[in-house]
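Allow me, if you will, to draw on your knowledge of protein folds for a short while. The matter concerns a single protein, recorded as an amino acid sequence and a row of backbone structure tokens. Could you please explain, in whatever detail you think fit, how the structure tokens follow from the sequence? I remain grateful for any guidance, and I place the record below:

…
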Amino acid sequence: MMLWRAQIPLLFLLALVTACESQLALALPSEPYLLTNAASIRNLSPEEAAQHHPVRLIGVVLGIAEIGSDGYAIHDGTAGVYIQGPPEVVAKLKQGDLVEVTGITDPGEFAPFIIQQSLTVLGKTNLPEPIAVTFDEIISGKVDAQWIQVSGIVRTHRPNPLNTNTCQLEIATGGGRLTVRLNTAFVKEPLIGAKIKVKGVCYYKVNKFRQVINPVLSVPPEVSLEIIEPAPEDPYLLPIQPINLLLQFAAGGSYGHMVHVTGIVTCIQPHEFWIRDNTRGLRILTPMSTQPLALGQIVSVLGFPKNGEYSPALQDAVFRITGSNVVLQPQYLQSAAEAFDYDADLITLEATITDLQLTRDGIAVGLKSGDQFFRAILVNTNLTVVPRSWQPGSRVQITGICNVTGDPIPTLTGLWRPQSFQIIMRSPTDLVIIQPPPFLTQKRIMWILGLITLLSLTTVAVIWTRSRIRLREQLLNRAMTEAQFIAVLNERDRIARELHDILAQGLNAIVLNLDLVRDEIGRLSERAAKHLQLAYELARMATADARNAVWNMRAQVLEQSDLPTAIQGILEQMTTATTITPEFTLSGNQRRLPPILENTLLRIAQEAITNAVKHAHPSQIKVTLEYEPRTIILTIEDDGHGFNPNTTTRSTSGFGLRGMRDRTIQLNGKFEVDSAPGKGTRIRVTLPTPFITNSDALLSI
């Protein structure tokens, strides 16, 4: 043994030489090269380690990773490194074995390591001194496969459920919790609450992105724990501490040690429960099952204080039941503002439900008391729907654990005055309806408004649809009426042509023959001459009536020219060979109009001009045609004898004032007559364009 101890300086000298060799090798081109120390292996990148560089190391075994595994760690004087070998070979290794290992590098899942190809045990040697590290250094990941030392207070001690040959500790160290794996079987001993110092090899649980999840300190079976401060033999004999004194200032006090509290159970959830003593309420976090607990039981609790959101809590707690059947009396609050004085305590107060929501864990109830809004939550329940009696607007009595919640931007120092809290209900019976909601709740008002809006939109849609249908029907009727009117005009043209060709021509022949007979009237008796003259006059009158009838029935003048030209032609034709001066004026944007409008205006102009020529004996006739955007205006004005419009309604042609007025009204127009005896006559007709809204009027023409 002394011989191998004398070889230690030689071992470290060899490590120094191999380190220099590795530095020279690193300067060579990127091809597999021999690595002879652990530090150079740790410095490889994952890509370099994947080239499987050959490795030859001499070092001391720090310990196997876990009993039954295929991994172990050695230290060669430069650093520790993880090695993977055959399980049957690894199982024979002991801490302190001096070994020579050959193999190749591998990038691993977190840090580079060695895949063993051969192993030679050279003897025994001492271990290097462990590195004292903090939890921050451990969680950084830099001490993978290194021989380290940490100290802390034991929080838990239990068997390893995955390997019965090992057990686990959890220690609180430097602001973190470190899992310690003891490679020995579990032995029940008073470790919880003890302050210990432990040596071991650090390994890591990682994700697929080569990032640290949790560190694990593996303690070889040859290493014993160093107890700095022993755990109490019977922790339940520790002095009972009032809940309101937890984490208060105490000169010379210590933090992190186990405390002993007692109280009445006020709320129970899986792995946590709440108690109350004579001072305050307290939240308890425990790895134990809470199923044996019942509300109203008295429990004795051992645990470690921790900072809560507002009030302290106990974690890693164990408990035992010491009494039962205590009647729970919640703290009755007059207003929600008092709740901040009862964090973690059982309270009850009246409030109004504002909203309800099903969550992944249970039911959340929005509440309002005075000006304070808060929520009550019911978790770990079998309810899949909100109880029917829970309605927004209901006045309720709510009971549960007050949980003061943190503010988004809390103060850094000094007295913190929280602004929000929630209530943790224990069961649906913690919410009692005092007064149901009024009929017109906000939800019902919104439903009513929505229904009214829907009905309004439906009514508007129906009205719009019907109006479109009605408009389409009107357009269809208008088109049919136009077609019928055109057919009527065509039929009238046909009849007019037949009248002209048969009746008018025959009457003209009779007049011509009578005129020839009249030249021989001197040979006839006076009586015969009188009858002949009468027949001649009747024939002329019949011819004139036939021509008027043909004119009234024919519309070919509009087929051959436009409306202004046709009216101007009538004016000039009727005043030719007379002393009457005609005047025609056209204004506005001239355009073609529906046939019914143009024919009506043409007939009115013809009748008015004819009446003026036959009956008024004027010296001037003025006709004006005005095209406006939505109307057309026809004006016939003469300076003749005039008449009384109230007594004269027809002309000799049968198309007098009444006929003009009727035709105008049927087309939704306006007919005006301005005349008096000795003052001339002015007729003004105004018709809307381009649409006709009275289809029946078209059919009656």
